[in-house]
Amino acid sequence: MAFIDYYKTLGITKTATEAEIKKAYRKMARKYHPDVNPNDKAAEAKFKEVNEANEVLSNAENRTKYDKHGKDWKHADDIERQQKQQQQYARQRHSSQQASGGFGDEGYSDFFESMFGGGPSRGNRSVKFRGQDYNAELQLNLRDVYTTEKRTLTVNGKNIRITIPAGVKDGQQIKILGHGGEGLNGGPKGDLLIRFSITNNTDFKRDGDNLYATVDLDLYTAMLGGELMVNTFDGKVKLTVKPETQNGIKVKLKGKGFPVYKKDGKFGHLYITYALKTPTKITAKEKQLFEKLAKLRQS
Which domain holds residue 230? Predict the structure, then answer.
């Protein structure tokens, strides 16, 4: 990756204060904003560069890493860890030389590597670092994850075709290997981590692999029994209602819940709760019949 002078991008010096960075960023962002420069690819690229510079320099920790490591600032932790390992190796080497009366450089190196499995890199060989992982969020509706789907995502200008298995849960994260940032000095690429944000805009409540729903039950069917058509996630089914069914009774429909993640053909259950609805706007004749029924129950 070519070195980008973020200070030059914002038109400031390395001694700029936090307030000066913020002021410079606002000025440059206004100048190159896409709304001010419609259909101007050069301005759009400059706007992205200005935002990138601000993200680094406005963060004290990132700015320190950038000042110290330049274009490799994202790998600062790995580089400093490697430097510590090399310093520790040098100290061990010095201590061992003193204790043994000294080895030649080549002889000591061979001895050390045979004991500890290798030392620091020599000559012009550079340490390879794995690329940075990318994080993305994919927003879906609950019905989108009832079946396995293929989606095309655009990450850093590249289209990535992914398969979303049925049964993915809200907040779940999957890893797409090798689709992260480029490695340093020929190191492997990072990964793409996708987090799913799932919106439930259905009448069902999801809990794990099970679904829950409330169904209205009229007084007459509840008392006498009968049949009732209810919705499931993939269509309607007919339920047999037992006589004298009470309000709040639950019934389980096996295998009518949500798909189990990465287990083809396996589903959770659907739990139906009956909500008893009493009749309204009854006629005078219906009222008389209810009164007769009440007297029968009291006798």
Answer: 205-284
